């Protein structure tokens, strides 16, 4: 008997996905959570046509649970015993099916912690525990299954430290789950997989599924009467990868008809990483089938002709290994990088220098026999008798052919008329697995490891491999670029060098004693970096001399002729070495211990000639700081996610709620003029609730309070610790308004304030927007909009962000959009992340994170540079004139907002404008003609935020390197 649980997260919107999975998996019983539909709208008929009876308990906006069964189902209860009036974001339904009591659970999320929702979660847990105690010792088999919104152990999250203060991982939640299990229940997944990371949920944001940044939230608890029948369990993870799927994947268990023999509780011992790497190096790890069909994977790829003269994407060298869930790890192959262009029965292997590899004909022949139309990227290696990559054997392969040739393919750039370079790496790898025939020894898919990067590096080092490659799972492919989303970490220090001469010591019988080697600097000058005198035998020297003789020249190719017989601390006497210079046309690879203080290699050893490299491309490869690079890439990824990720559905146009359809999670629900409510432990009095604040739209003061209550979890982080300028509209948007900054002796005792002496020497207390209670207290004063400082009380002189304010006069909003796109073009050119939001009035605001590292003056200087560049692009309708009278009706590119004490409408703030508009973060993809202010209003903002999440998170990030950025801007643009 197969019993499953699936948090469908909107059953009617995902009915097609549910039916597809039911047809594929054929479970006997299914528990569903988060139906998000009213009882009358439950899709009973299509589920019946699929062969399932159902009972359900629905709820319009939030949760709701259902149980499906292929056989007769009898409802036992549709709620837990006991009552709790505070929230309704949880559900329980219980049924009797095939002699088993099945309880379907949606346990409340409980965020934000701390807060009333978390307190409610623990109370709900207690009700569940009391009911479970009644069930555990019953004579009938019982299963409690569903979304518990708890990660019981560190194995149940990809990053425990990230969730320390999350209600899903709080110690109180984990203890409540632990106490529940201790009643005598068996956690089915953990019983079968005691030491493995099993995930059932992957967030929509930042490509969590592709990075396997998952959580285990969905659980099966079995009482003693049925635990002995547990035969198997799994997660249908691939369903999470279907387009438009829920953020949860279906989870199921298999029950035998009778008790099984006791299971041996042996500790799970994964295969050592060294063994896994060995398998991969030998090409034995290409069994995993793609999770999605090829047509779906290719759907978003644009049509394109096969690329010509494509060069491989390169990795940046960094100084240390690291671990991050956004990255996958590969072996750094010791071979020749090769792009394979395969079309119409022909195949060509091209070096990174766009030269053909014609010596590896077996690879070409096999590719041609497969009748592919594809462009592949990989590494040609030769495997010795032990199955390890051997660069020397590869160089001699044309002559000896004793080693086993292999082409390890790690990327696909084009396939059958589709350009794939703009797809994320994880998707390209899935396409690669779909396209390449499996289990071939000559052409193999290079294994990607989702493991701890530091441990992977240490294992590779222990195995004496050259190193590892780390790649962002969501990275796109940039031809001929050295990407910081692909990093290489070398276990051995290796360097490609130009062979510019050879030396011969007095009295030696060898062809030569050492090679004189160099690299090019940034100005294209060849610099001497020392000699290499080991690593070649007589046969190799004879072969190399044949290459050297046509290139002998009388003059040194270095900028300064070096003393090749110079003594050093390691070789204090001269050896009588004489130099023969060569034209700098050959490249070799060396391994060395270190670069000395005077820029020379120490203990260098020759590893082989590199005919695939252009000498002019050979520069000294310096290791970048790993932490700096990874943090920079992570921040850029956050920005890219915001820019590229479209909302899950089209922008919702403003519309009034249907009568009688009250949204969930409202603070004030009565029709009384006055209500008192406790918010975060503080008693607040809300008055004149029926007063219409937006007359044209019929929006009341009560509606305003309910809006700020609902958005508080995403809005408060942008108000916390920030002094607030209170812009009060006690009579609504058309009444008199005034600013209040000083709240001395006026704010509640519990509110946090910041003492401040203004320029005139007047002492004031500024209110800090620290929490929801403060936000609602401000709203109670008639503060329709929220106006926080750009800096926090802890660093009042250092703003957290710089803002470009696009302030139109008579321009159409499409021209505001054009100006915003120009701002983005400038910022993109200098690699600066930016976050746009509508002003909620007539313009747009573009935020740039600074991380409180600079002064307001420095921020304003930077903003001034940006707007000057933008103005140069669109001078016809923009101006930098501050005085309105001097603007001549043009749009003001305002950079002067970046000053102490200045404020603009905060993120998610309502605006005192007809339409009850909201200052809403948008993706850059949405910033295009057709966007309007009224796309985001009090009526639809909450639903949009639920769909997109907080698109503004990066604004409070690490911040840019302002000095480096300004230098880059000055280098690119002439101001």
Q: Could you walk me through the main structural features you see in this protein, from its secondary elements to its overall organization?
A:
With 975 residues, this protein is an alpha+beta fold. The protein has 5 domains: 254 residues, Endonuclease/exonuclease/phosphatase (Deoxyribonuclease I, Chain A); 218 residues, D-amino Acid Aminotransferase, Chain A, domain 1; 120 residues, Beta Barrel (OB fold (Dihydrolipoamide Acetyltransferase, E2P)), CATH 2.40.50; 114 residues, Alpha-Beta Complex (DNA primase, PRIM domain), CATH 3.90.920; 133 residues, DNA primase, PRIM domain. Helices cover 23% and strands 25% of the residues. The protein has 22 helices and 46 strands. The strands form 12 sheets. A 6-stranded mixed beta sheet has the order 3-4-2-1-14-13. Helix 3 packs parallel to helix 4, helix 17 runs antiparallel to helix 18 and helix 19 crosses helix 20. The protein is globular and about 105 Å long.
SSE order and pairing:
Elements: E1 2-7, H1 15-25, E2 29-33, H2 44-49, E3 53-58, E4 64-69, E5 74-77, E6 91-97, E7 100-106, H3 116-136, E8 142-147, H4 171-181, E9 186-187, H5 188-192, E10 201-202, E11 214-215, E12 218-222, H6 224-227, E13 230-235, H7 237-240, E14 251-255, H8 273-281, H9 294-298, E15 314-317, E16 327-331, E17 336-343, E18 346-351, H10 361-369, E19 374-383, H11 391-395, H12 397-400, E20 404-415, E21 418-419, H13 425-435, E22 443-445, H14 453-462, E23 467-472, E24 482-490, E25 494-504, E26 514-520, E27 526-532, H15 538-548, E28 552-553, E29 578-591, E30 594-595, E31 601-602, E32 605-609, H16 626-644, E33 675-679, E34 682-686, E35 692-694, E36 699-700, H17 701-715, E37 724-728, E38 738-740, E39 753-757, E40 763-767, H18 772-780, E41 783-788, E42 801-807, H19 813-829, E43 835-838, E44 844-849, H20 856-873, E45 878-879, E46 891-894, H21 941-948, H22 962-972
Parallel strand pairs: 1-2, 7-8, 15-24, 20-22, 45-46
Antiparallel strand pairs: 1-14, 2-4, 3-4, 5-6, 6-7, 8-12, 9-12, 10-11, 13-14, 16-23, 17-18, 17-19, 19-20, 20-21, 23-24, 25-26, 25-29, 26-27, 28-29, 29-32, 30-31, 33-34, 35-36, 37-38, 37-41, 39-40, 42-44, 42-46, 43-44
Helix pairs in contact: 3-4, 17-18, 19-20
